[in-house]
Amino acid sequence: MDDVDLSPARLTPERDEPPHRSDEAGTLLGFLDFHRRTLLLKLDGLDADALRRPLPPSTMTLGGLMKHLAMVEDNWFGVVWHDAPHVEPWVSVDWKADRDWEWTSAADDSPEHLRSLWDDAVERSQRTIAAALAAGGLDQVSARPHRLTGEPVSLRWILVHMIEEYARHNGHADLLREAVDGTTGE
């Protein structure tokens, strides 16, 4: 993804409509990119205070949402797909002490750090997806089994799950952004 400054003066990142006619992989990747960029639109121009602001009674914040999605990217495309160890900052976290660490710790992070964390995770994911598609396509299965079923999942399943994850959290982002400054819409 292009580097996009989260400062109030930055321009909104471009977001393309997912392809209306493409093969399955192109359609899935188009929708995933669409939802990733929708998240960026919801964060457009916000400072650190705005990224830390919850919408009570929830403690969810836009900064926590961005950090959570960075963790989700690294988990599915690194840990589950490759059976690779967690990368920083996730590997050093005491998850037993705070199972919502990515959400709670985001309040201590600058907008630039959150964006960098997310950008880096997305870039790693994009490299993983491209390599997997080149090596055999959507029917390949993960190296690590799903934690609930004990069965590996296909690349297709992971991509659909990631679209669902972003779509769900973009709904949260809609409400959080409106509570921060009244901004609504896409």
UniProtKB/TrEMBL annotation:
Biased composition (Basic and acidic residues): 12-23
Region (Disordered): 1-23
Cross-referenced InterPro entries: DinB/YfiT-like, MST-like
SUPFAM superfamilies, sorted: DinB/YfiT-like putative metalloenzymes
Superkingdom of the organism of origin: Bacteria
UniProt protein name: DinB family protein
